[in-house]
């Protein structure tokens, strides 16, 4: 099985398991635990994702994210490129700032965290209560609607308020010049401008243009490596590099 097939299988499995994992990944659980001075699994998980970003970039988005799985399936089926909506691009940063700000405010208000309870208020595996089912179905339906209306990975581009964690972490990794997982241009002079990499990019990025500039750097790059897999001229390499 090729690397890209493995990645896609992992994304599909992640989405299929979303009814089970939703309560562990829930941003509401992170807030609720903070209100009681408890580090819940949700808070610990997203902190770990953020801390890993300087080394793996947005690999979580392309390898593990359950909502990335449903978007990938719909995007591959429709083939619709992203519809640019300029005023929506700041929405996820606003939501992220509100979420992180709320966590910090609550943490200060309750006097900090008193302990870690990864299973805090977590009912375990399904069946959950009705409210939890409605929540995970809503989280799944929103990306579906956005992809159908605005093209591939529209939710990632416009409303995913977890992606700023990885975007900031990626910038930190580059600033520190750490070895980072990603697609790296190794021979720009061999590029034939066939556009295979751009057409295959799940985030609808102009990969060919970045190759001509000598580096694939874009805040919306999700470190999937599909551009390297589709390149027939061995211009792009996927792996760890500075």
Characterization of this structure:
The protein has 242 residues and is mainly α. The chain is built from 13 helices and 4 strands. It folds into 2 domains: 3-171, no CATH class; 179-241, Alpha-Beta Plaits, CATH 3.30.70. The chain has helices spanning 3-16, 18-25, 27-35, 41-56, 59-63, 66-78, 91-109, 130-150, 154-158, 163-175, 196-200, 207-213, 226-230; strands at 38-39, 115-116, 180-185, 236-241. The strands form 2 sheets. The chain has a two-stranded parallel ribbon with strand order 1-2. Strands 3-4 form a two-stranded antiparallel ribbon. The longest helix has 21 residues, at 130-150. It starts with a helix and ends with a strand.
What would the keywords be for this entry?
58% helix, two-stranded antiparallel ribbon, two-stranded parallel sheet, 2 domains, Alpha-Beta Plaits, mainly alpha, 4 strands, single chain, 242 residues
User: Number of helix segments?
Assistant: 13
Give me the secondary-structure category: mainly alpha
What is the total domain count?
A: 2
What amount of the residues lies in strands? 5-15%
Characterize the main sheet: 2 strands, parallel
Q: Could you list the spans in which at least 5 consecutive residues all have pLDDT below 50?
A: none
Q: How many individual β-strands?
A: 4
Oligomer: single chain
Overall spatial form = globular
- State the share of residues found in helices, binned by percent: 55-70%
Q: How do the helices and strands line up, and which of them pair or pack?
A:
Elements: H1 3-16, H2 18-25, H3 27-35, E1 38-39, H4 41-56, H5 59-63, H6 66-78, H7 91-109, E2 115-116, H8 130-150, H9 154-158, H10 163-175, E3 180-185, H11 196-200, H12 207-213, H13 226-230, E4 236-241
Parallel strand pairs: 1-2
Antiparallel strand pairs: 3-4
Helix pairs in contact: 1-6, 2-8, 3-4, 3-7, 4-10, 6-8
């Amino acid at each position: 099985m090729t690397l890209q097939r493995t990645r896609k299988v992992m994304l599909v499995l992640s989405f299929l398991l979303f009814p089970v994992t939703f309560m562990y990944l829930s941003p509401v659980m992170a807030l609720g635990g903070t209100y009681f001075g408890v580090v819940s699994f949700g808070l610990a998980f997203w902190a770990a994702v953020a801390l890993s970003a300087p080394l793996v970039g947005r690999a979580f988005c392309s390898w593990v994210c359950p909502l990335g799985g449903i978007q990938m399936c719909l995007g591959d089926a429709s083939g619709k490129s992203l519809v640019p909506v300029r005023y929506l691009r700041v929405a996820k940063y606003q939501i992220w700032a509100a979420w992180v700000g709320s966590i910090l405010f609550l943490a200060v208000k309750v006097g900090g965290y008193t302990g870690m309870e990864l299973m805090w208020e977590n009912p375990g595996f399904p069946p959950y209560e009705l409210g939890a089912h409605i929540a995970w179905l809503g989280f799944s339906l929103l990306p579906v609607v956005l992809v159908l209306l605005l093209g591939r990975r529209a939710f990632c581009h416009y409303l995913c308020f977890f992606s700023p964690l990885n975007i900031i972490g990626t910038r930190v990794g580059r600033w520190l010049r750490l070895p980072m997982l990603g697609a790296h241009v190794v021979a720009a002079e061999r590029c034939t401008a066939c556009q295979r990499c751009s057409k295959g990019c799940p985030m609808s990025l102009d990969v060919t243009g970045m190759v001509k500039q000598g580096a694939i750097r874009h805040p919306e790059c999700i470190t999937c490596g599909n551009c390297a897999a589709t390149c027939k001229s061995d211009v792009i390499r996927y792996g760890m590099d500075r």
